[in-house]
Amino acid sequence: MSCCSMDLPSPLAWLVDEAGASPGPERFLAELGRRLLADGLPLSGGALTLSVPHPIIARRTWLWRAETGAVIEALAFAAAPQSEAGREWLRGLGPVWESRIGPAENNQASDGPLLGWAGVANRAGGGAFGSAEASLLREVARFAAAPLAALAAREARAALLEAYLGRRSAARVQAGALARGTGETIRAALLCADLRDFTALSEVTEPQAMIAALDAYFDRVAGAVHAFGGEVLKFIGDGVLAIFPVTATSSEADIAQGDHEACEAALRAVAASRAGMAHLDQVRQAQGLAPLPFGAALHFGEILWGNIGAADRLDFTAIGPAINLVSRLEGLCKPLGRSVLISGAIAANTTTALMPLGEHSLRGIAAPCAVFTLAEA
């Protein structure tokens, strides 16, 4: 504890000396609430809300219950930014005290962190916070400005990186994996998808309508990838590259199980993508718009996942023979008249019923590839 914080109440001393190193908002709120309780403040709960730069989420709110010490998270989406989950939740617990936290005392900036507390309902004195209690909470809000600014900056950086890089890649970058040429070899199921005749469609479609069509297509494919535990690495024009990594393990049995689970997840994702695109085509046709035929390929293998690029402009991506093969395999979708093609490497790691299509030569790939597709209902 620093000399300037030795005589402060425990919650304020913690805010000065340690709170800035909190691993996340949920731990910050839980620890601060615990210390306020230990200092004699009669609380039933607390809430912390941060605005985040995210394409879907407007705000994140963490809710702490004093009785259990548990913290849960609530999200306010950009489509309904007026939602105030923290305030509404606190009102259900007891009398509420809250403050908008900022660099200056009594800051009222609408996007600053919002810290609120609920007292114990029906206690002596009518339940409201007393003057000494309110005074302590005002001091807490004032001392919380610096650590919350640091936490908010970290959360904003994480949200931006995840939106542009994906969750796993963002975590690697935040952990300091920034040197060009660094990376790791991982095993993963790979998904490569691409729209058919995109160039011709874009020639006869207004730009804004084309962007809307691309967004709808990407929603179906990326949504399915994320739903089954995968991660989109790249949007390339109208193409998508996604991975389903195998969880690292040392046991041979566990490795085989991990390979199987990654391949099964990729197969479920591509089936969901195809169903989603079929529904989208129905909607578009009802609107008098052209359908969006697409092709997708699945493969399994080792990839190099890491930083590649120029000295001052890097891309966190994946390369390797497996990436080349899945890209070439996707190119066979149109000639073979199939929306989904699956390599022999996936087929060897799944119990899902697949339809064999024989062996095919792929441009730039030395050995022919055994090709399968999803069994039709």
Tag the structure with descriptive keywords.
12 helices, five-stranded antiparallel β-sheet, Alpha-Beta Plaits, Beta-Lactamase, 377 residues, 40% helix, single chain, alpha+beta, 2 domains, eight-stranded mixed β-sheet, 27% strand
How would you describe what is shown here?
Helices cover 40% and strands 27% of the residues. The chain is of the alpha+beta class and 377 residues long. The chain has two domains: 3-161, Beta-Lactamase; 167-374, 2-Layer Sandwich (Alpha-Beta Plaits). The strands form two sheets. Strands 6, 7, 8, 9, 10, 11, 12 and 13 form an eight-stranded mixed sheet that branches. It has a five-stranded antiparallel sheet with strand order 3-2-1-5-4, with helices on both faces. A hairpin with an 8-residue loop joins strand 12 and strand 13. Helix 5 (145-165) packs across helix 6 and helix 8 (207-227) runs antiparallel to helix 9. The longest helix has 35 residues, at 252-286.
State the name of the first-level CATH class of the largest domain: Alpha Beta
CATH architecture of the largest domain: 2-Layer Sandwich
Class by helix and strand content?
alpha+beta
- Pattern of helices and strands: HHEEEHEEHHHEHHEEHEEHHEHEE
Please bin the fraction of helical residues.
40-55%
Shape designation = elongated
| Number of contiguous helices | 12
Largest sheet: 8 strands, mixed
The gyration radius over C-alpha positions equals 26 Å
DSSP strand count: 13
* Strand proportion: 25-35%
